[in-house]
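Hey, can you fold this one?
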Amino acid sequence: MASPNGIATQAAAGRPGMPRLDPKEAKSSVQSLAKGLRVLEAFSGGADEMTLSEIAVASGLDAGTTFRMLNTLVSAGYVVRIPESRRFRLSLKVLDLGFNAIAHKDLRAVVRPLLQSLVDEVSEAASFAVIEGGDVLYIERVRAGFTRLGVDIRIGTTIPAAVTSIGRAILAFLPEHRLERVLATPPRHPSASLPTPERSVLEPLLAALRRDGYVLEKSIITPDLRLLAVPVIGADGWATGAISVVAPYAQSSDENLKARALEPMLATARHIARAQEATGSTSSVAAP
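Sure. Predicted structure:
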């Protein structure tokens, strides 16, 4: 039987093929989050607008749970109530999740071979990161051989942007309104051991970066590492990300690391910027 907008009514068990919630995994999962995701998954190309009862049937949830999930998703901006009706639809905010994932995947494909060439040349580990919210997000990382240095920064790691050298390398080359927005955004995982510097401390650091075009210092996260970071500057003159190289502090002086790595890093940053422009995979960091 078809619903008023032509949507075929699903069986009470939910849309065929939709994964069920496994009671055995309840102890290691957040069931309310899983139910909220089921509500989002209930919408499809053939069912872009649905009533509460239709969503409940399609998601396999009871009406009360569906009502609470929808209210939460509406408040968070992922679902929209259609005015003067009892219908709901997904908002464009849902697309942001997918587009961000696609953009980062494309960015990794662009960055990895260039980062690998840099590591081959300087024989030190290298990373590429972008700004996301109030954090710096590590998109790609290439080790030098099998050596692990201190804390293992993994792809997907987020750290408050103003805390890290690679984050400040981006912040220094953002337009003023974007810089203010990043600094006003709370970090995803604030840490008492890594406090965000006061503006009176941060501003001279950013000014030095703008003057020199790079930052070279002892890692605040792993003190036995020396870190060199440079921005990736897009065609509009603003940062789209940054790359960093780390070396054991006891085995490399500032002068040695700069002499070996700075020019190759600047060249790699230019190559990444050109590749981003050519493929359209530039980060939203530089967006107005």
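Residues 1-19, 284-288 have pLDDT under 50 and may be disordered. Let me know if you want another pass with a different chain boundary.
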